[in-house]
Write a structure and sequence with these properties.
- There is one protein chain.
- The chain has 197 residues and is mainly alpha-helical.
- The protein is built from 6 helices and no strands.
- It starts with 16 loop residues before the first helix and ends with a helix.
Length: 197
């Protein structure tokens, strides 16, 4: 009987090719969000009709949703730690916490979008509305994809053999995506909500 051999997934950089692929993907996402943020900044202050940012933005509410997203990053760090140290209960619990915090953030975003809509701001109202909804909407889409990604890992971890020998790699790679989404939000929050209009 032939001895089973382990397949190596390392590149010449010493980084697993699956993790390297995530890094490459995130680099392309930097360009994508960089373009959206630049567009927002180029058209900032060009709206001729209201409602304008200073009339409609709810900074305390968005600060709370930002805190929720930052706490989800902490939960993700703990999930990665659990995966790397064989603490499967911690890993599963923190994956679930990250998912729930991500969903809470999305709930805040839906509430904000509905509130803005009821106050007359939508995608076609003015330059601010167009750039705001495109930028924050695409970010929300990325959070939703991240929630789906983490949910698939959590469900996979419930199987008999869990996530297999590469458990720490799968969770760590998902963590890269999640932290990227959080960092992008910090930039968006600063540009839209904190910089003077």
């Amino acid at each position: 009987m032939a001895a089973a051999h382990e397949v190596q997934h390392h590149t010449s950089t010493g980084v697993d090719n699956r993790k390297l692929l995530m890094w490459v993907f995130l680099a392309s996402e930097c360009l994508f969000f960089g373009t959206l943020i630049s567009t927002y900044l180029i058209f900032k202050g060009n709206s001729l009709v209201g409602p304008l940012p200073e009339e409609i933005l709810d900074i305390p509410l968005t600060s709370l949703s930002t805190f929720v997203l930052l706490m989800s990053s902490l939960a993700m760090v703990l999930a990665v730690y659990g995966a790397q140290h064989g603490q499967l209960g911690l890993m599963k619990g923190m994956l679930l916490a990250t998912i729930l915090l991500g969903l809470t953030f999305l709930g805040f975003q839906v509430y904000e979008f509905r509130t803005f809509g009821s106050e007359g701001l939508n995608l076609t109202t003015n330059q601010f509305g167009a750039s705001f909804f495109v930028l924050t909407g695409f970010h929300g889409l990325h959070v939703g994809i991240g929630v789906f990604y983490l949910t698939s890992l959590l469900i996979g971890s419930m199987r008999r053999n869990g996530l297999g020998r590469d458990r720490d790699l799968w969770v760590d790679t998902a963590g890269l995506y999640w932290h990227f989404v959080d960092i992008v939000w910090i930039v968006i929050f600063t540009v839209i909500y904190l910089m003077p209009h």
